[in-house]
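Apologies for my clumsy wording, but can you show me some protein sequence, whichever is easiest, together with the matching structure tokens, please?
=====
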Amino acid sequence: MAAIYSGIHLKLKNPRTPWPDKLKLARFAWISTQCLLPNKEQVLFDWTSHALSGFYNKKVEVPMEVVEGLWTYLDDILHSQKLHHLQSEGKTISLRLTVPQMINERILECSTGLTSVSLHAVLSCCHGILTSPVLSVTYTANYELLVELIARLSGLASSQLREQISDEPLSLKVFEVLLLVLSIYLPVQKQQANSNRVFSQVTANILQPLFLLRHLLNTRVWTEKDNVKIRQNLSKEIRSKVDAVLQSALFISDHLQSYKEEVLPSENKASAKKSHAGKGVLGPVSMILSKLCVQADNDEEETALFYAVKTNSLSLLFKFALDSFCSGGDNKQVCFHLMTKLIIALGFTDELDIKETFSASNWGLALLTLENLLNTCLASNIYNVATDRIQHGEVQFKYYRKLARLLFNNAQMGIPAWYRCLRSLLTLNHHILEPDLDELLSTGWVDADNMEQRVRKAREALVSAVLQTYAKLRQMPKLIEELLNVVCRPAADELRPALLPQTIQKTLSQCLLDSPPSQNLAICWLILKRLQSYLLPHMQEQTEDLALKMFSVSSLLYAVLFSFKTLDNSTTMPIVKQTQNLMGDMLKIVEDLLRHFEENLVTECPWRQKILEVTLLLTYIWVEVDTLFQIHCIKYTSLAASESGVTISLVERALTLENMDCQVISPVGKLLQKLLSLHKLKILLLKSSTVSSDEDIADVLQKTAQFIIDRQDLSVMLNTDQIWDLQLCSVNTNTYMAAHWFFMISNLPLIVPYLEQNNISDLADFMLKSLLQSLHATGNNLENTGISVSSISRQLLEGPILCELPEMLSAMVKCIIKAFFGLLDSSHVKLISPSFFKSSAEVSNGVEDGEVFMTSSLMRLKAIGQEILDSVKTGSSIPLSETQVDGLLQLLTVTRMLNRCTVFSEDYSELFLSLYTLTVCVKFDESMEPLLAIRFLSELFRAMASLLVVTNSQTILKAVHGSNLLEVAVTSLFSRSAKGLFKSVNDSTWLSFLDSFKDFIQSLIQLIIERRSSACLNLEKFTSFMVESNIAVRGLSVDAVGQSKGDLYSLQLHLVILSTLCIEMIANQGKKKHFDETLTCLLEKATSLMEPDIQAVLMGKGSGLLRQSFSVEVVTVMIRSELASASQLFQSGSEDHRQEIISRMSFYQSFCQQILKELYPSPRPMDFLISSIRYLSAFYTAAERTKAADLGELHVKILQSVHALLSGTWMSLSEVKELEGPVKELFNQLVANCSQEQFHLLLLMLREGLVVSKVEGGLHTEVLSTVTLTKLLACCQFPEHCSKAFWHITPQIISTLIFLIKESSKMRCLARVLTVPTLEALTVLLRQGGAHLSNPHHVIMVLGALQFVPLDSHSLEDYHAAFEAIHEALFAVIICYPRVMLKASSIFLNCFYRLVSSVMHEGRQRGESDRASEKDRESLLKCARLVERMYNHIADSAETFSGLSLFMVAQYVSELQRVTLQPEIKAHLTEGIYCILDCCVEREIIFLNTTLQKGVKEVFNELYNSYTHYHKSQRHGEEKYTI
């Protein structure tokens, strides 16, 4: 055989052998051990490469399928285990150079679309070669070949990325191989001895392909069809490698002299040339830019793409240069001149003019790049004003001035980056923009008309920066003067935007608050003089442009005067005098304007409207500011004091202007008049002496308040969701209502006392309509952003102000009641309860003499209640359509917003009775969807339940007996059920309805019991009613056998009512002996009613799984009811009740057996599991009380069942945690009186479950179950003998749990589901065992185990769970074991440092694409708060950590130096480390300053300075007042 196989080599070389046979022979030869060839592997390698090269060189003809097979064969060889073993044994196998050359050529073919073979096979071959240390030398030893491979792979990846529209997904193999090649290339590039060769190769071959690839990766819109690995990992890693390759090739120290030679001015080149001596690269910047500035062939799309690549690359190149040449603060001038070259490459000339070839569509990209370059320059501190002026003749300043002129000469006011570029220049040096300040204010503020949001934000940020800069320079008057010049000069467009939007207004206010009073007064003088000298003298021209300018200047004065600090008693006298002079001049202007109107000097209507606004605004400013100065400063002498009633006179004159002959007053004017009226009202309240008598005061106040609310405005319901930004200048027809409503509601406590009842009702009616309109418009969602009528109404309804205005709140409730009945047919409502439409006086007139002791309002409520009860008995009803139900649901939504605690008791009771009427007296239209009717009833029951839980609810039972309310509500529901309302209901809707109905019943029964008056009588009456109704319901269930489940819901309703009644009676036992006896009797009646009903459900007459948990809950209530009754009878000492106290024990026993069967064999709903565990707890109590014979067996069965349940493979960790509460209650019941045998069995269960081999065998759910049981048992109250035994073996349990943590942490998939719960169990043992665990070794072992808990989970949810578990374990140690901490402080701090470093790593700032979700950010914030909390506790235990505080600080600042934290995370960590710094003495601070490394020391100094400034001073201030 060997001889036969040895001839394979000849057959492979024989040209007559068919190529398919050759390929088969070659495959066989590789895998066969019987084929004997000298150096077989090398021969087969050579044959394959020779065959492929012969085909591609066209020397031999090979079929395409064979060529494909040859590539696949080569791929199989390269990835075979056989080749790997041969290489590991040291056998040398070489690869011909032609193979990588062919691979490069095939990749080039694929990138151009000329695919001849499988791309995957070629790339796999390339991957196999590069991953082999021996074969990869073929590439690494040939630098040019490797560069060519990168260029072609980059081109291939780019071509795939550019095909965004194509349905073909990206090839994962392409990007994996590209990343591999870049990773191999990077060390090869660094090992090259000739850096000039590297520079030439990179710029010539791979510079543009790599930049194109990087741009496409950055800008690609990733979709779901894209491979997740490419999107999340590979794209980032490839970009990182590309950056490293380009930076290490283009910007190394060897080339610095070449860069200096090229970019520095001629006078600085001499020294550089001498030292260079002919070495290096000639013109490196030109070479780089020449490759980036390649023009596409008349293809607009290609041209745009290449320009985008170029612009993105320029800012990246500048960053590389800064990192390489300017890291130590040197060569800043070189970097600046390099930046100028890069800016010119954007398409500008050397003098920063636009080239003829520059396309206007490129401005967006060019400005973005310019912004990045300027910001990078700013961050690197390249521009130093003094150095530039003294050493370099202001070369940088002059260049930035040219750049500013370029921006202003080619203003792009529709591009946000244009504003940001100006802002960057302003930050560099405000003198750069100061010569063009007027142009900046014009284009960037006053005349900017682009309202697109991104543009607006950028513009407002620029203007805010200008204001802040000039405020810091104390040159605000100069800026405002320039602003006034711009505002007052002729405008290109009369319709200028508002001068002071909200953002600019806030910034201006803050700047004025920080400015000296003298400068603020100077600004006011400038504005007044502009009004006096420029605007007022030209009033006769009556042009609209002039009126708009006057309003802009006046609004500026309004913003200034209402922003800076008011005068007070500490203000110096010169400032007070200047202010008085200012107010005097302003008063002259106001009076002059008023005179113009009073003498009819202003006639043209459009002009008159704007001048009227100016007059009203200036009047309001003067009276408001003058009053404030008088109140706060006794040195201020107002003209109002010298001339009697000047303020009131001005207000009256301004308010009478509306009666002049003109068009309707503008929205701004109307609002200003109302503001003036409010001021008048305040003045009248402060100075009542101005009016002759109290009657006159009351009359004037009432008229003023009525004018402010303006009933005519309230009658017009416009769009209530229109947003207003709180700025006076933005008030118009659309926003006026929001502004007016905001102004009224803000001053409601001042206005309401002087309004008549009809006015208050109008306000309430408007508020209700606005809320309903908002609900209708937004689909029952009232969450609006900003200020709108509906949002203001909602805030008022839910806030505390309305509670302090009882008349307004009462009017609101009455409006809601009126709206409820307004949606119904009034004739039907009157038939049901005519007293709803009568006043209290009308009802009380017809009352008999025996009832005159009641108030008229209570008489009316009793009449309404009785009429409702009578109408239900007679069968009267109110028809409801679907439209009416929708409207009523919206009203119910508003009703739930009411603050019910402060409503008048009469209104409260009437509202409840209105809802009750809708519940029991309506008849739904037959065409209505049953689900809508059921939802309506659910909302009604939910609303009534919420009304019954507040203090005022007692009044309801004065009007109607509680038992009557219960009986009628239940009768109504039974009637609806009998008519088939619930036939088609689904499970979730039915459960929701039952919950709301149960809440109503429960709240009403609670109210009956709490009121105490006739509680027994009401409960007995209702129980008797349920006995009677039970007969009918049981008959229904018997008749309905075989029918649909909808016919049997009355049975379930009956059980809900009875179980709720029993629960409330059980909860209220033990108050009075007589009351307890009554409750015991009623509990027995209710239980006897429930037994046949629940048995009917269990026999299959109910609704299947829908009521599975419900049935268990009902039987649990039955047991607890019997236990409560038996307990009462036992305490009474009755001999008849000392033997068998539970009468239905056999039924409960069989039910328990059924639960134990169904509890764990298969997945069950969580509500069923919880109710079943609670039932077992109740049943075990009953078994103990009856001293059942099989109690021990029951104990074992329950333990085994619960353990099996928690061990179920279908149980998730969250479900196990949800069961912990009920299981803990059950275990407390089981172990309270357990015997030694039972306790021994329990310990055996723990021992069998805590086995590490089960973790390795995949049975981690069994281990988790035992861990959970251990944790719960540690919290239980054992008998004394069991407690001693449990804590005696606890050290062994701790050792086992620690071993479990170590083993489970090795498998990442178990970290969340087993490692963390085990650590939680350990923590509980430590906390509960503080008095029992005396050996510190066990605590130290736990601290050691914390090191194994992983904190590098991919999910932040898992990370937070592990973090919190470690923190709680540390917290338990530091709180419960202070003595152990004396020995284990260093281990403790090592564990805590893991938490600190991990939260700093996870809480670092990230890019937009990598930003965490809101939920993840909240998890990180919780972790940061826990770290802060632990720092506080460590500081409180300073004596334990004596001498270790400085090491904690050193660790913190070392970690902080590596990352940039999110601000909210940093705030919590900083507060925590401040507490540690409190413990550091001065010598430790000196030691840190001495020993820390340079970068870390800077971080520490910054931290310590902020600590000294903010924290230490505050702490010392507090200590001053501490005894």
